[in-house]
Every structure is written in C-alpha cells, then in structure tokens.
C-alpha cells in the first residue's frame, strides 16, 4: 500500500479535472455539469491513487489489489452500461447527453458491479472462444473492457484511444 496520504492540492484537483474533461469530450463522453460535485469526486480519485496506487472509483470500496480492482479503476467497466440505462455512471461523474441537455432526470443508480465471488474470473469479459478465430485474420483482435473499443494488432495498445484505459484492461476478443 502506498503511504503517501497527503491531501491533494486544489491545483492537482483542477489539473485532473481539466484532463478528464478534455478526454471525455475527445471520446464522446460528458462530465457532470456540476463542477464542484465533480471536483469532489476528482479529489477522491486522487486520494485513492495515493492510497492504492491506482484511481479506484471514489464511490466504491477498493480491495487495495489492482488485479481485483481492475473493473473499478475510473472509468470503470460499468460506466457505459449505466450511462445508457440511467443517464449517469454510478458516481454520476459522467452523464449522458440527454442528462446534460436536461432531457432526462437523474435517479438513483443501482450498483452493477457483481459480488466478488461472481467476478473471480474476468469482469466484463466477452467470453469469446479463441478457438473461433477466423483463419484469415492475420492479427488478434483486442477489446477494451471499459468502452468496448476494438483493434486488430499483435498486442493491446498502451492506452485505449477512446477512454484512455491502460493495456491491462484489454482482453483478447478473437
Ligand atoms: S466512471 Fe465508474 S469508476 Fe469512474 S466515477 Fe463513475 S462509477 Fe466511479
């Protein structure tokens, strides 16, 4: 566990907020328009980064084990499904275009993360069988477990170009 628990400074919060906002826009996502609310969550992300070494979701209990928590490193594997169904991610850090435009009201968002026992394998995994790889594909196809981005190459990219998830959050799709 990382023992550097110093409180993030306002400028660190502002910097990460600006980066998340920029990356969200580049990827077709939207941060919640309540800037102070979002900065509170950003502060939580920075605290978790100091505490665990990764930006675990500020609204969930992390296990202090990156492998166990891969699904809840922000943005989590559950963000897109919650945006589609409820108009916001579990923490309401990200909202849908309809919520942003005031066309949809935010309501309580239930926890989509499966209990620990049922995610022991690989959360969000497609379950695709590698036996079914079409013979004419010359390279494997990799899927981002956060946003579903697919790419064909020898190995996963260092960072997802859409949601910026790291390569450890890709799975071999076919
Ligand atoms: S995207 Fe997921 S991890 Fe990030 S704040 Fe929202 S619910 Fe938490």
In short:
The chain is α+β, with helices and mostly antiparallel strands and 174 residues long.
Describe this structure in words.
The chain has helices spanning 10-27, 35-52, 66-69, 79-86, 97-100; strands at residues 30-31, 94-95, 141-144, 150-152, 170-172. By secondary structure, the chain is α+β, with helices and mostly antiparallel strands. A three-stranded antiparallel beta sheet has the order 4-3-5, with no helix packed on it. Helix 1 crosses helix 2. The N and C termini lie far apart (35 Å). 29% of the residues are buried. The protein binds iron/sulfur cluster. Iron/sulfur cluster (SF4) binds next to loops.
What's the SSE blueprint?
Blueprint: H1 10-27, E1 30-31, H2 35-52, H3 66-69, H4 79-86, E2 94-95, H5 97-100, E3 141-144, E4 150-152, E5 170-172
Helix pairs in contact: 1-2
The structure holds iron/sulfur cluster.
Residues 41, 57, 59, 72, 74-76, 79, 89-91, 93-94 line the site of iron/sulfur cluster.
Distance between the termini: 35 Å
Spatial shape = globular
Q: In what order do the strands lie side by side in the largest sheet?
A: 4-3-5
**Main sheet specs:** 3 strands, antiparallel
The number of helical segments is 5
Instruction: Give the amount of beta strand, in percent.
Output: 5-15%
The low-confidence parts are none
Alpha-beta classification: alpha+beta
Mean pLDDT: 89
List the quaternary state of the chains.
single chain
Helix fraction bin: 25-40%
Distinct ligand kinds: iron/sulfur cluster
The count of β-strands is 5
As a whole number of angstroms, the C-alpha radius of gyration is 17 Å
């Amino acid at each position: 566990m990382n023992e550097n628990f110093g409180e993030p400074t306002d400028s660190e919060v502002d910097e990460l907020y600006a980066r998340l906002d920029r990356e969200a826009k580049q990827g077709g996502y939207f941060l919640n328009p309540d800037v102070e609310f979002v900065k509170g969550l950003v502060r939580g992300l920075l605290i978790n980064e100091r505490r665990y070494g990764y930006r675990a979701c500020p609204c969930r209990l992390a296990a202090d084990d990156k492998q166990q928590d891969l699904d809840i490193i922000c943005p989590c594997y559950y963000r897109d499904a919650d945006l589609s169904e409820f108009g916001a991610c579990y923490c309401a850090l990200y909202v849908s275009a309809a919520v942003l435009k005031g066309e949809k009201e935010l309501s309580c968002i239930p926890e989509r993360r499966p209990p620990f026992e049922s995610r022991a394998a690989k959360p969000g995994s497609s379950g695709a069988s590698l036996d079914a790889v079409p013979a004419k594909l010359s390279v494997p196809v990799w899927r981002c477990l956060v946003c579903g981005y697919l790419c064909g190459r020898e190995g996963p990219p260092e960072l997802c170009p859409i949601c910026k998830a790291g390569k450890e959050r890709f799975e071999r799709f076919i």
